[in-house]
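Hey, quick one: can you model this chain's 3D structure?
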Amino acid sequence: MKPDAVKSLNVLFLCTGNSARSIMAECILNRLGTGKFRGYSAGSHPTGRVNPLALNLLRKSNYDVSHLNSKSWDEFAAPGAPKLDFVFTVCDDDANEVCPICPGQPMTAHWGLPDPAKAQGTEAERGLAFADTMRMLTQRIGIFVSLPFEKLSKLALQKELDRIGRTKSAISKEPA
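Sure thing. Here's the predicted structure for all 176 residues.
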C-alpha cells in the first residue's frame, strides 16, 4: 500500500455461531466496500463450520467462499489482530441470543436479524430464510458503504449506524 493511499476501514460482524449471518455480511461488505472497507466475521460461540446453506447461497451469488471459516471473536482481541473501526452485531435480540462484547473501542451498532440456521421446514423454506437474511444484509451494508463518512461527525455517524440497524427489508409491493 502506498503511503498516500487511503486506509481501508476494518469492520467486524459478530453473531453467536459465526456460521451464517456474520459470514454472509463479511462477504457482502468485501464486495460492496472494495477499496474502502475490509470485512471480517466471528462468533461468541462459533460452531466451527460455515452453514452449508449459507455457503451454497454465497457460491450461487458468485462470492469467493474459499477463505471462509467459523471462528471466535477472541481472534480479534489477540495481539496482531486487525485494528477494528466498526463492529456490528447481527444476533437476534428477539430470540434471546447473547450478543458478544466488542474488543477495543470501535464504533458499534446492533443490526439484529433472525438466525436463518434455525429456520424450520422444507429445504426450500430454509433456503428462503437464508435468502431473506442475505437480502437484508445487502441492503444494510449498501446503505453503510454509501454514507458520507468524511462529512459526518462521530455522533451523526453513530445515529446513522443505529438507523441502519432498524432498516426493514424493502420488499416491493407491485400490483398483481
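One thing worth noting: Helices lie at 21-32, 52-60, 123-146, 154-165.
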